[in-house]
Amino acid sequence: MDDSELAALRVEIDKIDAHIVELLAQRFNITNQVGVLKAQKKLSAIDPEREARQAQRYTELANEFGVKPQVVQNLFRSIIDEVVINHRAIAVQTAFQ
């Protein structure tokens, strides 16, 4: 593999990374809307049953696409933790409105 081939592959990786960040922003936008609805309905920021279903789904998706399930689980655990933090903040803001 020469330098130009390596550079081309890295350009492709950078494009994919940008797409992942764009999708993540879209996901957080939608989960923010979920947080608002949960706050309005006085629902918990955490939904253990959904999280369990999603964890199973993430494992299935990882297997389908040939990615280590633990890598996918770790990624989504981090995302979900951030969503919960955001939902709790929304609930506090909504309580004072």
From TrEMBL:
<dbReference type="InterPro" id="IPR036979">
    <property type="entry name" value="CM_dom_sf"/>
</dbReference>
<dbReference type="GO" id="GO:0046417">
    <property type="term" value="P:chorismate metabolic process"/>
</dbReference>
<dbReference type="InterPro" id="IPR036263">
    <property type="entry name" value="Chorismate_II_sf"/>
</dbReference>
<dbReference type="GO" id="GO:0009697">
    <property type="term" value="P:salicylic acid biosynthetic process"/>
</dbReference>
<dbReference type="Pfam" id="PF01817">
    <property type="entry name" value="CM_2"/>
</dbReference>
<dbReference type="InterPro" id="IPR051331">
    <property type="entry name" value="Chorismate_mutase-related"/>
</dbReference>
<dbReference type="InterPro" id="IPR002701">
    <property type="entry name" value="CM_II_prokaryot"/>
</dbReference>
<dbReference type="GO" id="GO:0004106">
    <property type="term" value="F:chorismate mutase activity"/>
</dbReference>
<protein>
    <recommendedName>
        <fullName>chorismate mutase</fullName>
        <ecNumber>5.4.99.5</ecNumber>
    </recommendedName>
</protein>
<feature type="domain" description="Chorismate mutase">
    <location>
        <begin position="1"/>
        <end position="91"/>
    </location>
</feature>
<keyword id="KW-0413">Isomerase</keyword>
